[in-house]
Amino acid sequence: MPPAKAKSIFQSRTFWGAMVALLPAIAIVAPPLGKAADEGRGLSGTEIANIVVGITGVLGGGTAIAGRVAAATPVYTPEWAPGPNASDFDEGEEEPKQTS
Questions:
Q1: Region Disordered: what ranges (predicted)?
Q2: Which residues does residue 75 pair with via DSSP β-bridges, in sequence order?
Q3: In whole angstroms, what is the distance from residue 71 CA to residue 19 CA?
């Protein structure tokens, strides 16, 4: 079987699944932090627990994205993002070109 052609990270279902997983994590973390900052007080135990759950979601989503980038089918990122770009791959080339 010939090597898989590189594809955009935005064509990766794993990437989009991880992004969807990150949304509730952010929604859990943001309100208690904003409320505590507005009121100038510390966080309650429930708020801390929610933040821990949210951070866990962010770490899980980030791990999924990192796993997608390291997967067997190479992916490229937009020109403005870090990582290999489409121009780093020649037609049918699996690995990015090495630049000095």
A1: 77-100
A2: 7
A3: 17
Buried b (16+ CB within 10 A) or exposed e, 58-85: eeebeebbeebbeeeebbbbeeeeeebe
E-only strand ranges, 1-100: 7-8, 75-76
Handedness of CA 62, 68, 74, 76 (dihedral sign): negative
Q: Is the dihedral of CA 70, 71, 73, 79 positive or negative?
A: negative
- Position 1 scores a pLDDT of 38
**pTM for the complete prediction?**
0.46
Between residues 80 and 100, which one has the greater pLDDT? Answer: 80
Helix, strand, or coil (residue 77): strand
pLDDT score recorded for residue 81: 82
Residues 6+ apart with CB under 8 A from 8: 75, 76, 77, 78, 86
Q: Which residue has the tokens 């507005």?
A: 38
